[in-house]
Automatic annotation (TrEMBL):
Pfam families assigned to the protein according to its UniProt record, in alphabetical order: UbiA
Name assigned to this protein: Protoheme IX farnesyltransferase
Gene: ctaB
Family: Belongs to the UbiA prenyltransferase family. Protoheme IX farnesyltransferase subfamily.
Enzyme class: transferase
Length: 303
């Protein structure tokens, strides 16, 4: 049955798929993978059940963050073609349901981490959720084009949380992995923002291409790609990983930088069926999956 809205419109029926969509499952997959790699690369042994429960807690925390983000930004999502079909702007869910779902999921994820791992990991998970919702979504995103730069910390927590869940302490390698994702975030999201710029402009979101223009955004993508590449390779010469990771990081980062150079040198309006920014955005996702996979493979090889 449909649900009546107060303004006389009819709300489409919701089902579990709409609640699942609130969690941003595609984003969650990358969160889960990097967290799992952080856990697997940590020293020592984690009981499989407790390890699975810890990763589940991180996944649920990421899903809670996505749900609360969509609850808060429902009005903005309705103004953008890319997000207008989401459950809230499309009218398949009411905001109160989304809010309760997000808060409940967040609380459960933290308690699950506390019982499955340790209070340090639970505290980091809490900080990551609050940072994404309060600092990035509510404060930074609608106010500054640096939203992605500072807000990138929210997405950088998973490998650190996975490591701390396994060990109860912080070490240099997961901190470097945190830094890697932090520096990866601007070129990844600004590449997306370049080809959906009109969406952000219509919603009034001050993303870098909207505020600073495309030429400036392209230069900054290249700048962040270069320092990201340094951060990606750094664990090898610093002695925290072996040659397998080092060579993988060097090769993958070289491709990332090459694509960033194409984006940086491309002039606005140049025709291309597959624009450089689209290629960079697609590769940036594969880059993180492959690089973190190399962290685990390298750890197992050394062990």
């Amino acid at each position: 049955m449909t649900q009546s809205l107060t303004n006389g419109e009819m709300r489409l029926p919701a089902d579990w798929r709409d609640l699942f969509a609130l969690t941003k499952p595609r984003v969650m997959s990358l969160v889960v993978f990097t967290a799992l790699c952080g856990l697997l690369a940590a020293p020592g042994h984690v009981h499989p059940v407790l390890g699975f429960s810890s990763i589940l807690a991180i996944a649920l925390g990421a899903g809670a963050s996505g749900a609360l983000n969509q609850w808060y930004e429902a009005g903005l999502d309705a103004k953008m073609k890319r997000t207008a079909g989401r459950p809230l702007p499309a009218g398949r869910l009411d905001p109160q349901t989304a809010l309760h779902f997000g808060v409940g999921l967040a609380a459960f994820s933290v308690f699950l981490m506390l019982f499955a791992a340790n209070w340090q990991a639970a505290a980091l998970l809490t900080v990551s959720i609050l940072f994404y919702v309060l600092v990035y979504t509510i404060w930074l995103k609608p106010r500054t084009p640096q939203n992605i730069v500072i807000g990138g910390a929210a997405g950088a927590f998973p490998p650190l949380i996975g490591w701390v869940a396994a060990t109860g302490s912080v070490a240099p390698l997961p901190v470097l992995l945190f830094l890697l994702i932090f520096l990866w975030t601007p070129p990844h999201f600004w590449a997306l923002a370049l080809f959906v710029r009109s969406d952000y402009a219509a919603a009034g979101i001050p993303m870098m291409p909207v505020v600073a223009g495309e030429p400036s955004t392209r230069r900054q993508i290249l700048f962040y790609a270069l320092i990201m590449a340094v951060a990606a390779i750094a664990p090898w010469p610093l002695g925290y990983t072996g040659a397998l990771y080092g060579w993988c990081a060097a090769a993958l980062s070289a491709v990332f930088v090459a694509l960033s150079v194409q984006v940086g040198l491309r002039r606005t309006g140049e025709g291309d069926r597959m624009q450089p920014e689209k290629r960079l955005f697609a590769f940036s996702v594969a880059y993180l999956f492959l690089l973190f996979g190399a962290v685990v493979a390298d750890h197992w090889l050394i062990a």
